[in-house]
């Protein structure tokens, strides 16, 4: 028997190493889905891969949704904004740009 997954457990903790963040995303995809907030918009992450670079946890390292983790970084490849269809990160960034240095939560 497993307990119901709560909303708090699905939020991405960027302070963890990249591999744990990546595994968290894979384990919760597609439902209920791991998520974070950028500029007050909730974004569910469906797919990710290892990113290049390092920085403060939860900081966008480039304008292609590479987010710094506690150790390393993850590249978000497929995401879904609240109330929208799943899209590649490039498609989402056309309408909702996330600049390098931006903090996500």
Enumerate the spans where pLDDT stays under 50 for 5 or more consecutive residues: none
Give the termini distance in whole angstroms: 31 Å
Largest sheet: 5 strands, antiparallel
Helix and strand sequence:
HHEEEEEH
**Strand tally, please?**
5
Helix content: 10-25%
Compute the CA-based radius of gyration. 13 Å
Q: How much strand content do the residues show?
A: 25-35%
Principal-axis shape: globular
Description:
By secondary structure, the chain is an alpha+beta fold. It contains 3 helices and 5 strands, in the order ααβββββα. It has helices spanning 7-10, 18-28, 89-95; strands spanning 34-38, 41-50, 66-68, 73-81, 87-88. Strands 1, 2, 3, 4 and 5 form a 5-stranded antiparallel sheet that branches. β1 and β2 (41-50) form a beta hairpin. The radius of gyration is 13 Å and the shape is globular. The termini are far apart. The relative contact order is 0.21.
Topology:
Elements lengths: L6 H4 L7 H11 L5 E5 L2 E10 L15 E3 L4 E9 L5 E2 H7 L10
Antiparallel strand pairs: 1-2, 2-4, 3-4, 4-5
Structure keywords:
single chain; 105 residues; alpha+beta; five-stranded antiparallel β-sheet; globular
